[in-house]
Amino acid sequence: xxxxxxxxxxxxxxxxxxxxxxxxxxxxxxxxxxxxxxxxx
Length: 41
Fold this sequence. Notes:
The protein has one domain (7-36). It has one helix at residues 2-40. It is rod-shaped and about 55 Å long. The protein is mostly helical and 41 residues long. It contains one helix and no strands. It comes from Leptospira santarosai str. ZUN179. This is Transposase domain protein.
């Protein structure tokens, strides 16, 4: 049982990390767009 729980926890952590990476990538893209607009403007 403990081994199964640890596996599930690892999967949950992996999903959370993926979500965090997606959020960071989206934020970085938005920041880059803002910087590009500020430079042109």
